[in-house]
Amino acid sequence: MKRAIKISAATIFMAVMLVFTLNLNGQSRKELEKLRNKKEKEIRQTKKQLNETKKKKEKSGEVLTMLQKQIKQKEELVEVYNTELNKIDHDIDEMSKDVKELNSEIEILKNEFSKLVLQGYKSRHASSKINFLFSSKNFSQALRRFIYLKKILNFRKKQLLLIKNKKYEKNRNLEILEKTKAEKLGIVKRNEKVKTELEEDKTEVEDLLVSLGKKEKNLQDELRKKEKAYRELDAAIKRAIEAEIEIARKKAEAERKRKIEEQEREKRKNKNKNSKPVKPEKPYEAPPGTKFGEMKNRLQWPVNNGSISLGFGNHRHPTLPDVTIINNGINISVMPETSVKAVFEGEVSAILKIPGMKNTVLIKHGDFFTVYSKLENVSVQKGDRVKSGQKVGTIWTDNEGKCELHFEVWQGNQRLDPQKWLVMK
């Protein structure tokens, strides 16, 4: 069991949230709305899984892990809400300024139009338009006066239309402003609700930590069992992959020998004909998983609905101090009886049974491998060709009532971070 470097959890959290907030500030309101909907969906899903786990095991490390995950999701959602509210406030300020400017423009246009109407009224009483035209000295002057009067009339019409358009624009902006204010009010209410839930979750975590602290020995025993199961799984995967690599090596060697023998036969056949020696071909190599290798960040998830409960790499234990959990893949929390699917086409290389991990399916994709562990039932057999999205089994519900897929990606005998291969949700 490895010792963790002691770094303040608050420091780590603040650093993560700072990066998260900086990323949020660069997003548009539409992007933030999409992110908000995604976070709300994740929280609903985690809450559902948490309630299912609580029914089966009220006070456990799994409940604590899910609660901590839910807290993190809600804190991220609050950050999204706050950023969104800041952008809405900015939009409201801008729209309010626009409405104020439009009001000023409308007043100016109305005053100008009133002056034109008054001027026309005075002109009409001083002398009629007809007299104005007939008092012209000649036809050319009369034509110029006619054009002048027509221009005045057209200008009045344009001013009137401009006033109407400005009023329409103002009313439209006011409608948008009211809708934006209503949207802001809705987000404020949701934000306050999440903040209240967040405080309740934190209180529940504190109480659970006290309760679990009294059961530290049981937790240590439980952790040792899990570590043993994961070690056995890792060893079994390595053996299966090494066997596949050896099979591929023998095939390549046999093919290389066949090519050499074929070349020797050609040499003997052509020896008496003074032909040029046959150029030796390169040794045969097993086709690498080039297609799979091109699927980084593009692979579909092995389950339809699920969220990562434990990522790849090293993690601090939620309750045991100075304990590091090592994960060679990712754990995905799902609902009971969830179907597990192949993320890419390939061949079933092995089906393993490991105590504490139930059933495991290993699928070969050229020189890549994917691992699907903690399956109750397996729907494929060794040697089967599977398609992308084909069902390989059904998730197992463990003794703690937890439903969690353990998923790994390997290239040869090297472990890879599966999250970097799956499409971003």
What can you tell me about this protein's structure?
The protein is of the alpha+beta class and 425 residues long. It folds into 2 domains: 1-214, no CATH class; 221-420, Glucose Permease (Domain IIA) (Distorted Sandwich), CATH 2.70.70.10. Helix content is 59%, strand content 15%. It contains 7 helices and 12 strands. The protein has helices spanning 9-25, 29-56, 61-126, 129-134, 139-213, 216-270, 290-293, and strands spanning 307-310, 313-316, 324-327, 330-333, 339-341, 346-354, 358-365, 368-378, 385-386, 391-395, 404-411, 414-416. The strands form 2 sheets. Strands 1, 4, 5, 6, 7, 8, 9, 10, 11 and 12 form a 10-stranded antiparallel β-sheet that branches. Strands 2-3 form a two-stranded antiparallel sheet. Strand 11 and strand 12 form a beta hairpin. Helix 1 runs parallel beside helix 3. The radius of gyration is 37 Å and the shape is elongated. 19% of the residues are buried. The model is unreliable at 1-22 and 277-290 (pLDDT under 50).
What would a concise description of this structure say?
This protein has 425 residues and is α+β, with helices and mostly antiparallel strands. Helices cover 59% and strands 15% of the residues. The chain has helices at 9-25, 29-56, 61-126, 129-134, 139-213, 216-270, 290-293; strands at residues 307-310, 313-316, 324-327, 330-333, 339-341, 346-354, 358-365, 368-378, 385-386, 391-395, 404-411, 414-416.
Quaternary structure annotation: single chain
- Structurally, the number of domains stands at 2
Please tell me how large the radius of gyration is. Answer: 37 Å
Helix/strand/pairing class, anyone? alpha+beta
- What percentage of residues falls in helices of 4 or more residues? 55-70%
Q: How far is it from the N-terminal to the C-terminal residue, by CA?
A: 33 Å
% residues in beta strands: 15-25%
Largest sheet: 10 strands, antiparallel
